[in-house]
């Protein structure tokens, strides 16, 4: 058990997840299965042997070029592997949000973080979060809470269904109503339905309070990052900005330090007593 909590092990494990997320990101728009065929060079289609497919290291070793056709391999591949590894390693410092057992908490957070990164990558590329990813994420969130709430908090089955499914559905409906009104006021679509469904998935993991605080925090994070990107002229003022990555970042923070802590920070910011 102690080995698993070792940061080096977690970093290696996280980089492997990052490598898998790269495959998912690359194959999703092309509708290629994520399990078959094995990794191949997008240019020359040659299969990549395992020893040239080691996260981060292989890219550095090959100096960012395919061994066979010498075409450039995007820097984004090792970058995503590195970021995923860093985020998953950082989970070791998380406050036990899902379970008082640090190891179980870490399993939940690793899974949750991977879902958040996957959703962000696909949303950034395609301005959409796939329904099957959301469904998979929601079911796994509910199952994870079903087990941990029962074992560590003694909640009964109906309470867990109420907290993580029924309240999540209510949250989805209320968010859509809010979105509808806001869209009427600003006379354009405020949030896509994908964002509502994504918040539903987040709610199956973090509960309704967690999803609500995720949304509030994402407005701040989104606002700051969008202004920076516009000032740096990285995105046009009227360009469509995917909101999923901001929700992911907020949900990650809340998974790490807990809903209550983030709520207190926001409250103190406004000095509401
Ligand atoms: Zn090649």
List the helices and strands and how they pair.
Elements lengths: L6 H21 L29 H5 L14 H15 L11 H25 L4 H23 L3 H30 L6 H39 L12 H14 L1 H12 L3
Offer a quick outline of the entry.
By secondary structure, this protein is mainly α. The protein has nine helices and no strands.
Describe the structure.
With 273 residues, this protein is mostly helical. The chain has two domains: 1-93, no CATH class; 108-273. Helix content is 67%, strand content 0%. It has helices at 7-27, 57-61, 76-90, 102-126, 131-153, 157-186, 193-231, 244-257, 259-270. Helix 1 (7-27) runs parallel beside helix 4, helix 4 (102-126) runs antiparallel to helix 8 and helix 7 (193-231) crosses helix 8 (244-257). The longest helix is centred in the last third of the chain and has 39 residues, at 193-231. The chain is globular, with a radius of gyration of 20 Å. The N and C termini lie far apart (43 Å). The model has no long low-confidence stretch (mean pLDDT 91). The protein binds zinc ion. Zinc ion binds at residues 41, 43-44, 46, 66, 68-69, 71. Zinc ion is lined by residues 41, 43-44, 46, 66, 68-69, 71.
């Amino acid at each position: 058990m102690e080995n698993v909590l070792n940061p080096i092990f977690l970093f290696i494990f996280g980089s492997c997840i990052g490598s898998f997320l790269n495959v998912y990101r690359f194959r999703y728009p092309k509708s290629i299965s994520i399990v078959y065929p094995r990794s191949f060079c997008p240019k020359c289609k040659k299969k990549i042997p395992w020893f040239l497919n080691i996260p981060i290291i292989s890219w550095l070793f090959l100096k960012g070029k395919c061994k066979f056709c010498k075409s450039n391999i995007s820097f984004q591949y090792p970058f995503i592997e590195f970021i995923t590894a860093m985020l998953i390693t950082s989970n070791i410092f998380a406050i036990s949000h899902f379970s008082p057992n640090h190891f179980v908490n870490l399993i939940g957070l690793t899974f949750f973080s991977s879902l958040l990164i996957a959703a962000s990558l696909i949303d950034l590329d395609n301005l959409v979060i796939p329904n099957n990813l959301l469904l998979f994420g929601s079911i796994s969130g509910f199952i994870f809470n079903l087990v941990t709430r029962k074992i560590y908090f003694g909640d009964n089955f109906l309470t867990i269904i109420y907290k993580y499914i029924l309240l999540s559905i209510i949250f989805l409906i209320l968010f859509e109503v809010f979105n509808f009104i806001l869209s009427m006021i600003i006379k354009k679509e405020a949030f896509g339905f994908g964002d509502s469904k994504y918040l539903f998935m987040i709610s199956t993991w973090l509960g309704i309070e967690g999803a609500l605080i995720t949304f509030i925090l994402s407005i701040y994070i989104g606002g700051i990052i969008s202004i920076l990107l516009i000032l740096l002229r990285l995105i046009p003022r009227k360009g469509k900005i995917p909101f999923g990555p901001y929700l992911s970042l907020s949900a990650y923070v809340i998974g790490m330090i807990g809903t209550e802590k983030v709520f207190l920070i926001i409250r103190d910011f406004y000095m509401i007593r």
